[in-house]
Amino acid sequence: MAQARERRSGAAELEKSLHEDLSNPARLLLVDFRDRPYVPVALRYEELRISVRLGRACTTELIQQELVWEVEVHTCRPGRPEKFYELTPKGTDLVGSQKLGPGKGGLAHRHYQRRNCDRHVGLGYLSKVEAILDGKIG
Questions:
Q1: Long-range CB contact pairs, 87-95, < 8 A, 24+
Q2: How many domains does the chain have?
Q3: How do beta strands 136-137 and 68-73 pair?
Q4: Total-model pTM
Q5: Which residue has the higher pLDDT, 15 or 98?
Q6: Among the four residues 65, 111, 117, 137, which has the most C-beta atoms within 10 Å?
Q7: Comparing C-alpha atoms, which of 36, 46, 22 is closest to residue 86?
Q8: How far is 99 from 10, CA to CA, in rounded Å?
Q9: Residues 3-25, mean pLDDT to the nearest whole number
């Protein structure tokens, strides 16, 4: 809950630098996309305490303003792929770079890297994303 307040205050600080025609919930969502890129959409809306309807409207607003791109990540589970949102260059100019963590490539590729690393660690293996092996990043 304290984290949600911090994200809201972060969005308030950026209010002056963002487009004036961008709604407050959309600003909050944009900052959250930057800070927590790997959180699934439904969980994100719940944690930010915004309804699914408002969340979808804000996400659509961000896409129309060309601040984010929708990235679908296919999982091994049946059903729809998970949706994540990557900042566009325009979105990055407004709020800064996304915190994607170690690895190479875009949001979807790094998500797969993280997921595979976590699975291997869960099985008891020593696993790192983009570790240095024999003097080379591998």
A1: 87/30, 87/33, 87/34, 90/65, 90/66, 91/30, 91/33, 91/34, 91/62, 91/66, 91/67, 94/14, 94/17, 94/18, 94/19, 94/30, 94/67, 95/14, 95/18, 95/30, 95/31, 95/34
A2: 2
A3: unpaired
A4: 0.64
A5: 98
A6: 111
A7: 36
A8: 15
A9: 60
Closest C-alpha among 109, 84, 93, 89 to residue 33:
84
Is the pLDDT at 109 greater than 80? The verdict is no
Q: To which residue do tokens 């984010």 refer? A: 68
Alpha-carbon Rg for the chain in angstroms = 17
Structural domain including 85 reads 2-98
Do both 40 and 56 map to the same domain? Answer: yes
Chain centroid to Cα 122, Å, comes to 23
Residues 72, 120, single domain; the answer is: no
Please check whether residues 83 and 27 belong to one and the same domain: yes
How many beta carbons lie within 10 A of that of residue 10, not counting itself? 16
Please check whether residues 46 and 112 belong to one and the same domain. no
The answer to whether the CB of 6 falls within 8 A of the CB of 22 is no
One-letter amino acid of 26: A
